[in-house]
Amino acid sequence: MKPKSKVLIIAGSDSSGGAGIQADIKTVTALGCYAMTAITAVTAQNTTGVKSIAPINPKEISKQIEFSSSDIPPVSIKIGMLHTKEVILAVIKSLKKIKSNKVVLDPVMVAKGGAKLINNTAINYIKKELIKKTLLITPNIPEAEILSKIKINSIDDMIKAGKILIDLGAKNVLIKGGHLKSKKIYDILLNKKLIKIFPSRKYLSKNTHGTGCTLSSAITTYLSCGKDLIKSCELGIKYVNEAIRSNLKLGKGNGPINH
Ligand code: PXL
């Protein structure tokens, strides 16, 4: 089958295959598109946690982005783990040369087991420099709390945080509600004109490693196929929910979802 479109993924490698670049490639491929990658870091991990993180030199990250894209121009771009300020600046510089207006940023900060995947200076650069250069950012609640500097305990708080991120220059924000104590899950898409709530069933599974990576990749893939932003979010959420529901049960810790 011929791929429907082309997606570039800029993210870290997860050796356990559940999150990071591996989740991204599986998602883009499962949804019928062609995946290219620029690896920002190599993590050694399994479902019980992260053992080590080896950063890739920012120059090498830029080369991966620019050399692959100069040959096969991506229609959309998904950005995941960016651990330092230098990596963020390199990615911004390379993005300028590609000129895709469909860039989705998953502001990855902490792995499921609690390991930090980014330093504090880098968080500031994401806020000040990168957010405004993307079409959509997809923070979960802990990430939205760090970026907006407010506590989130309700849907109203999610909307408040989303508005703060819009004021910081984000064009569109999808705050993922999986961490909220509620019967259902509410993911909320906001921009200057719109607040759209996507309700989903909550599955009580410990096997949810890689849900964030998968969602942002699915949305990026649907965007690359020409779906609009709201439809891409709706279909992306649906894909992730199905991948959680068909519980794989791999590993002794937080296992992967079923791409
Ligand atoms: O889920 C966030 C994430 C992103 N990128 C990499 C990861 C993880 C979580 O483990 O390992 C490489």
Q: Can you characterise this structure?
A:
The chain has 259 residues and is of the alpha/beta class. 39% of the residues lie in helices and 20% in strands. The protein has eight helices and nine strands. The strands form two sheets. It has a six-stranded mixed sheet with strand order 3-2-1-4-5-6. The chain has a three-stranded antiparallel sheet with strand order 7-8-9, sandwiched between helices. The protein is globular, with a radius of gyration of 17 Å. Bound molecules: 3-hydroxy-5-(hydroxymethyl)-2-methylisonicotinaldehyde. The site of 3-hydroxy-5-(hydroxymethyl)-2-methylisonicotinaldehyde has 17 residues, from strand 1, strand 2 and helix 7.
Question: What share of the residues lie within helices?
Answer: 25-40%
Global morphology = globular
Which spans have pLDDT < 50 for at least 5 consecutive residues?
none
Please list the strands of the largest sheet in the order they lie side by side. Answer: 3-2-1-4-5-6
Order of helices and strands: EHEEHEHEHEHHEEEHH
Give a list of the ligands: 3-hydroxy-5-(hydroxymethyl)-2-methylisonicotinaldehyde
Terminal-residue CA separation: 18 Å
The overall strand count is 9
- In DSSP terms, counting alpha (H) and pi (I) runs of 4 or more, how many helices? 8
Strand percentage lies at: 15-25%
Overall mean confidence score, pLDDT: 96
The radius of gyration over CA amounts to 17 Å
Structural class by SSE content: alpha/beta
Q: Characterize the largest beta sheet: strand count, sense, and whether it forms a barrel.
A: 6 strands, mixed
